[in-house]
Amino acid sequence: MIERLNEKIKKTGAPIVVGLDPTLAFVPKFIQDKAFEEFGQTLEGAGEAIWQFNKAIVDAVYDLIPAVKPQVAMYEQFGIPGLIAFKKTIDYCHEKGLIVIGDVKRGDIGSTCEAYAAGHIGKVTIGDKSYCPFDEDFVTVNPYLGSDGIKPFLKACKENDRGIFVLVKTSNPSSGELQDLTTKAEKTIYETVGAMVDQWGSELLHGDYSDVGAVVGATYPEMGAALRKVMPKACILVPGYGAQGGKGADLVHFFNVDGLGAIINSSRGIIAAYKNEKYASYGEAAFADASRAAVLDMKEDIASALAK
């Protein structure tokens, strides 16, 4: 799967993933009104509104980017109708040729972990038929239960040509409360997890890169530079660009010398761009055009930083 992602990054020239993390506050009123007219002010109405919002944004940006990253919590909050919108979004993005990274941050052990892996990047068998329930290409996973919480995902990756991104150093301000602690081996926890990612990734190598990637926040560029050396074969998924303060100049050391090895996420900075003063002239009616403009600006920012 990493080969497909890298091919699309090279084709688009945009190591960018758009986070499809909708809230109703982001969805223009005219979309909400139409959904509520059909389904009422219900969970079904909310699910329809966020699905139509996503579809419009994907239509506006799919030719510019290699991948999208829907955050499942934004859909789960609307119950079953939200999960239906999550699945419809995944399927539509695949129709548009996009790689889908399910931001699910799963982590468990035993049969529970196996079920998470099967549901998102694997298959379930029902009678004499098999199904891919959510059918993402990659998912994010939490490593804090150790290898027991990762092995079922590795197995699913091998069997189904899928990938994972392991949380290593996250972009939130309090991440250091745990991730920066020093172990008995005099390494930080995030460095220790990074070394584990490198080890897990050795089982799923495809040329210069592995199907096992890492999540490292753009808000910690110096740590990203150190982790790049610890995980030379891992693609780094980098959240924190834009709304959380990360910018192109912070991202240079996340990449390898071949220009690959990282993919940068922006969520509300793109999907809610029309609410940003910079793109306010587009107005609510042209919210998707504002999102496209934000992607183009992000692409230029990253390309300029890498060119220096």
Listing every helix as H and every strand as E from the N terminus to the C terminus, the arrangement reads: HEHHEHHEHEEEHEHHEEEHEEHH
Low-pLDDT ranges: none
> What gyration radius follows from the Cα positions, in whole Å?
19 Å
Number of helices: 12
Describe this structure as you would to a colleague.
The chain has 308 residues and is an alpha/beta fold. It has a single domain (2-23, 99-307), classed as TIM Barrel, CATH 3.20.20.70. The protein is 44% helix and 17% strand. It is built from twelve helices and twelve strands. The chain has helices spanning 2-12, 29-39, 43-61, 73-76, 79-95, 110-121, 151-160, 176-179, 189-201, 221-230, 268-271, 287-307; strands spanning 16-20, 67-70, 99-106, 124-126, 129-131, 138-141, 163-169, 205-206, 209-210, 212-216, 236-238, 262-266. Strands 1-2-3-6-7-10-11-12 form an eight-stranded parallel beta barrel, surrounded by seven helices. Strands 4-5 form a two-stranded antiparallel ribbon. Strands 8-9 form a two-stranded antiparallel ribbon. α7 (151-160) links the parallel β6 and β7 (163-169). α2 (29-39) packs across α3 (43-61) and α6 runs parallel beside α7 (151-160). The longest helix is centred in the C-terminal third of the chain and has 21 residues, at 287-307. The radius of gyration is 19 Å and the shape is globular. The two termini are 30 Å apart. The relative contact order is 0.14. The mean pLDDT is 95.
